[in-house]
Design brief:
The protein is an alpha+beta fold. The chain folds into 2 domains: 62 residues, Ribosomal Protein S8, Chain: A, domain 1 (2-Layer Sandwich); 55 residues, Dna Ligase, domain 1 (2-Layer Sandwich). The strands form 3 sheets. Strands 6, 7, 8, 9 and 10 form a 5-stranded antiparallel sheet that branches. The protein has a 3-stranded antiparallel sheet with strand order 1-3-2, with helices on one face. A two-stranded antiparallel ribbon has the order 4-5.
Length: 126
């Protein structure tokens, strides 16, 4: 039984990148699908395909170097981190993104700032 499925997804992506795999499969959920869609939209992964049980993420490389340099889980089961729209952090001085679970759905930091909504700060990706 997993206590933190989002951290499991991020760890699978991190480990697959370190092993230079072409794709990684994670168990499916609505939040993970939304996070994977954000990763594709922002250009961190090549493609995302989902069915009822699993999400398959095709990883992106530039000359053998992973497109994702780092992943960090911020909000954890023991310590939830919430931010207002004015407190959304800039990741790596604007070179990365943060993913936030808001009342408007799962959004990246820039979209949440534009919509003036805050929420739970899930992770940072650069």
């Amino acid at each position: 039984m997993l206590t933190d499925p989002i951290a499991d997804m991020l760890t699978r992506i991190r480990n697959a990148h370190l092993a230079l795999h072409k794709e990684v499969s994670v168990p499916s959920s609505k939040m993970k699908k939304a996070m994977a869609a954000i990763l594709k939209q922002e250009g961190y992964v090549d493609d995302v395909s989902a069915d009822d049980t699993a999400i398959t993420i095709r990883l992106k490389y530039h000359k053998g170097v992973p497109a994702i340099a780092g992943l960090k889980k911020i909000s954890k089961p023991g310590r939830r981190v919430y931010v207002g729209s004015s407190q959304i952090p800039r990741v790596q001085n604007g070179l990365g993104i943060c993913i936030i679970s808001t009342s408007s759905g799962v959004l990246d930091g820039a979209s949440a700032y534009e919509k003036k909504v805050g929420g739970e700060l899930l992770c940072e990706i650069w």
